[in-house]
Design a protein that fits this description.
There is one protein chain. This protein has about 475 residues and is α/β, with parallel strands linked by helices. The protein has a domain of about 200 residues. The protein contains 16 helices and 20 strands. The strands form 6 sheets. It has a 6-stranded mixed beta sheet, sandwiched between helices. A 4-stranded mixed beta sheet has the order 3-11-12-13, with helices on one face. Strands 5-4-6-7 form a 4-stranded parallel beta sheet. Helix 2 crosses helix 16 and helix 6 runs parallel beside helix 9. The longest helix has 27 residues. It is globular and about 55 Å long.
Length: about 475
């Protein structure tokens, strides 16, 4: 077979990497899913060959949401000045008045910063896509006019009320975050601590802490191809910041508990581990789905085993007195931000029911309640293609850019836009590959493996979301 090449994805703000062969590179290189089933101790999914995925999706109609994604070139704005970018909040039409009242301090604070006219309050029309929502204001998906629809948009409510898909689509071009708590008082607590953090500054140490569990081939890749290169790059580029790593045998639940107790809490925390999953009829799913598994081995000698609470870092493990004010956290794990009702990744069984309904994970909810400014995590299963494009090694440019934006005091929603750019870039390449297959320019044997790889990487990039106010940023105490 003649070896062909296709462009690698563009790493935002960095030189594009070299060309990548589409034959053996993708067909023989498996897709590694993250996640462990809590009741069996087995992987949620085994490694899957790209060709096996391609057999399920090749030749089917391309979803409309992919056709609508465009690479956005934003206008020349100061992303930190809300008077230029605007700030808006999107509530469900039937929002509990107690929730809106609980957020009143944050809403007034943002309205003052945006100088009135650039502050907007929206009601979400039930069932609307991002395109339909924007069409109400005669705004297309590629247009950013902050005087009509602000750049920073905070979604308030559960993903049952305002779907994850709406957040994905809106976040391609804008800085978008979500807040959802079970009780109004937690909204009030988050709003109070965020306003204090920005008006009075925080004294959180200028330290980036990496916590990397290594227990199997998937998490080995996370430590070797995500933690190691990111830590090295931040040591060089994050001026004035220290870098601390807890990996392998040092990445224990006890250690992570201390990191999140308030005393050893850094300014930025990056964790890589399996997130545990439960069946939809399991009574523990809502409280523990996406909890971080801190087991150092998966029982290779004795076989898979039930995951115990002593090995899981759950929301309930964060002390109610923990002071996490000023923390940003990036949790790379399955379900670390939330769980959809149906999975977003095609495999041998096709779409399957994961939960009775969409929901936000309890661990990031607890971190935000205790003062964290924002939590970046994954909805549904996480895959190593987030940082590992081929067997040749990790490509962490996008992740590096996002973290550096946060460390330099930029707003979280703008930092997250680099994930949106990656999603849009992958969608563009996926559309091209799909059209080539439909037109007979590439055969299943020669190109479907790459098509399947793009499909998985595209969904994986899309499902990385921000929980918290997208305008949140680190403001340090003046010396």
């Amino acid at each position: 077979m003649t070896k062909e090449t296709v462009p690698s994805y563009a790493s935002v703000g960095q030189q594009t990497h070299g060309q990548e062969p589409i034959d053996r590179t993708y067909s023989d290189h498996p897709l590694y899913p993250n996640g462990i089933h809590a009741r069996t101790g087995r992987p949620l999914l085994p490694p899957i060959r790209a060709l096996d995925v391609a057999a399920k999706i090749f030749g089917q109609p391309l979803p409309a949401e992919i056709l609508e994604v465009e690479r956005v070139i934003p206008p020349n704005l100061d992303w930190n000045d809300l008077r230029q970018t605007g700030w808006g909040v999107i509530f469900p039409e039937d929002i509990d008045p107690k929730v809106e009242e609980a957020l009143s301090e944050l809403l007034k604070y943002r309205e003052a910063a945006a100088r009135g006219p650039m502050f907007k309050r929206f009601d979400y029309p039930a069932g609307a896509s991002a395109r339909q929502f924007l069409a109400q204001f005669e705004v297309g998906p590629e247009v950013i006019d902050p005087e009509i629809v602000p750049y920073y948009l905070l979604i308030v409510g559960s993903p049952e009320e305002i779907p994850f898909s709406f957040q994905y689509q809106l976040g391609t071009a804008r800085g978008v975050g979500r807040l959802h708590f079970e009780v109004p008082e937690d909204y009030r607590r988050y709003a109070r601590q965020l306003v204090l953090a920005e008006t009075q500054g925080v004294q959180r140490p200028r330290v980036v802490t990496f916590f990397g569990v290594e227990q199997d081939p998937t998490t080995h890749r996370s430590v070797a191809q995500l933690v190691a290169p990111l830590a090295e790059r931040l040591i060089r580029q994050a001026e004035g910041w220290g870098v601390r790593t807890w990996i392998r045998g040092d990445a224990t639940k006890e250690r992570l508990g201390k990191i999140l107790s308030g005393e050893d809490t850094p300014g930025l925390l990056v964790t890589t581990s399996h997130g545990v999953g439960y069946d939809s009829d399991d009574s523990l799913q809502l409280s523990r789905q996406g909890a971080l598994l801190c087991r150092d081995k998966l029982g290779a000698e004795k076989g898979p085993a039930l995951v115990s609470s002593e090995e899981l870092l759950c929301g309930a493990d964060i002390p109610p007195a923990a002071d996490l004010q000023g923390l940003f956290a990036f949790l790379f794990a399955c379900y670390s931000a939330g769980t959809p009702q149906l999975n977003d990744f095609v495999h041998e069984n096709g779409p399957e029911k994961i939960a009775d309904h969409d929901f936000v994970a309890r661990l990031p909810q607890r971190l935000l309640r205790q003062g964290a400014l924002g939590v970046i995590g994954h909805v549904d299963r996480a895959w190593t293609c987030t940082f590992s494009w081929t067997e040749g090694g990790g490509q962490v440019n996008t992740l590096e850019t996002v973290l550096l934006q946060l460390l330099r005091g930029h707003r979280a929603g703008h930092a997250m836009s680099f994930f949106g750019h990656r999603y849009a870039e992958l969608a563009t390449q996926l559309t091209e590959a799909w059209e080539n297959s439909r037109q007979g320019k590439v055969s299943v044997q020669d190109g479907a493996d790459f098509l399947a790889w793009l499909w998985t990487a595209h969904n994986d990039a899309r499902n990385m979301v921000l929980l918290g106010d997208p305008a949140a940023r680190r403001v340090e105490v003046e010396p």
